[in-house]
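Subject: sequence -> structure tokens, single chain

Hey, anyone have a minute? Need the predicted structure for the following. Not urgent.
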Amino acid sequence: MKLMKGRIIQAVKIWFVIYPSITVFYLIFGKHLINIPVPLRTLILTLILVPWMMFVGIPVLNILIEKFQKSEKP
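Reply:
Had a minute. Here:
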């Protein structure tokens, strides 16, 4: 049961980072990508956003969660 809870938490963290990241990416670059075929567009999106999530987004989220948890302790 503990393993399942950990996976659910990890999935929520990933969603919490990827959803706004994709949204911002498309707001900034969407006009430039509109005429590119979908497979190439997806490749570009993943080449940028997967490293962003792994090396910036998730680590920053983990730091924020740690700080929040520490501030809750009396």
